[in-house]
Amino acid sequence: MEVWKKESVLLFLPLSILLSVWSPVFSGLVKVNALSYDYTASIECLAQPHKAQYGGGMIKNPELNEGLIGWSTFGNAVIEHRNESDGNKFVVAGKRNHFQDSVSQKLYLENDKLYTFSVNEAWVQVSEEKALVRAVFRTVTGLKRAAETVAESKCWSMLKGGLNVDASGPAELFFETDNTSVEVWVDSVSLQPFTQEEWMSHHVESIEKTKRRVRIRVEAEGNPVVNSKISIHQKASGKPIGCAVNKGILNNVGYQDWFTSRFTHTTFEDEMKWYTTEPVRGKEDYSLPDSIMTLMKQHNIAVRGHNIFWDDPHYQPNWVPSLQPNDLSAAANKRINSIMTKYKGQVIGWDVVNENLHFNFFESKLGPDASATFYKVAASIDHSIPLFMNEFNTLEQKGDAASTPAKYLEKLKNIQTSMGAEAKRMAIGLECHFDVPSLPYIRSSLDTLAATNLPIWLTEIDVKSGPNQAMYLEQVLREGHSHPGVSGMIIWSAWKPNGCYRMCLTDNNFKNLATGDVVDKLLKEWGIKATVEGKTDAAGFFEASLFHGEYEVKISDPVEAANSSVSQRFKVEPRHDFQDQIMLLQVST
């Protein structure tokens, strides 16, 4: 048989908006005619704000074209309606004496809805310099922050966020900034509610866009071959899901079998960290990560490098904290060159500095540019892989002021500025250690971060123990996998006989827990490592709908010996809105 080739591309009709959706709330499939979700966001400061989508949703007079109708004073601010020279209208809150003095709008929120503030956006501006501006909802159960951004003067910045409420009742949207000397300008506000079923339909709609219909035609001397056996196996997902491992996998066949049968990507829990590889100054020991790396290679499992440095002072090698700045700089330079050179070509990315929004060990010793320096050095050692800034609570906790999307982007931009042409090597790592996930906040935060056009990985996903642990895990995994800006996910569940970090997937006999069942269900649903089989029809065709990724097809000739077959790899790229197409592949015998 001759090697098959891509022959042509054929058009097919796009999906209907009416989607079949799996719902954890109402078991089974439900039909939802849902309003599509817009995953776009802006992180640039613009001369003009965008229009409010959905007509502002629940917001009355969202673009301030009707004066101040629907808007009122919050606190003791003085509000006024203004026009720009180009005709744009907006509301201004001035003469502010308290950080919450601003403009507001009264609403009614329901506890069974998920609110995106906004599916479009609120656009804000301040009268001078820069100021951190937050959108806040006063609800019957207290204040809920929905979004924040660093607003500037003379241009409009986007606020995008989300919330759900614990109890239905009246609510009030307002804006706050700690800088009481500035005016707050507001325009193009939108608040769009979604039901649980509509929210799930967005997952389906987004994931369907990553699938392509692949049609394989088998022929012999120009004639179709009927009943050829076709087997298509996914070798690598275009949006991988992996799980952390540790040294416990090395001599445990049960652990190895459970892990390698499911996952294509991993991160070593502790074995690459500096305190593991150089516990004594000058005596490096890579035996543990080397052994795990060898095992992963045997099973074609890709490895994320984690981590080169950790900015938390509690997680340094014992000998490091006492070093003087010059000695620390030399030791750090040796560390980054040693581990990156050793594993160059063996890892798919590096967490270069871990948690440098919450901690500043290296900055306190080496100066405020310590992180930026490490990324510049890393980029010079390996130009081929993404370099991640790995942080927690950017998606998990709205109330953590240290690591909001706005703070993450500010730090990222500072590092990129110092890297020059290598700034494109940066990538976004979000740890995702959840208690109770807020899905609207997760999605809107990912929207904002994805506006960088940098790779995003959810790097350490887990959920704290509790009766809803498995349900929350499924929600997080679905939200991450369906988001067009997310490139991959790692579950932080390296097995240990005395208990995992926060969440295990199996018991000590490698029988799935409820969390493991969720993972298996989703791996199957998303076609991870799946095999599709069938036979060619009367015209010699076999057709399958495949997620984007790398595949191997095996075609067996029905009239020849059972072992007569040909196999070949091919890649399915995600389709785009302008590219609703069937891939046609042809093989001749």
TrEMBL record:
Q: Name one GO molecular function term.
A: endo-1,4-beta-xylanase activity
Annotated GH10 domain residues: 226-522
Q: Which domain of life is it from?
A: Eukaryota
Q: Does the keyword Hydrolase apply?
A: yes
What UniProt keywords apply to this chain's record, in alphabetical order?
Carbohydrate metabolism, Hydrolase, Polysaccharide degradation
- Classification via InterPro entries: Galactose-bd-like_sf (IPR008979), GH (IPR017853), GH10 (IPR044846), GH10_dom (IPR001000)
The UniProt entry's GO biological process terms, in alphabetical order, are: polysaccharide catabolic process
Which family does the similarity line name? Answer: Belongs to the glycosyl hydrolase 10 (cellulase F) family.
Entry protein name: Anti-sigma-I factor RsgI6-like
Q: What is the lineage of its organism?
A: Eukaryota, Viridiplantae, Streptophyta, Embryophyta, Tracheophyta
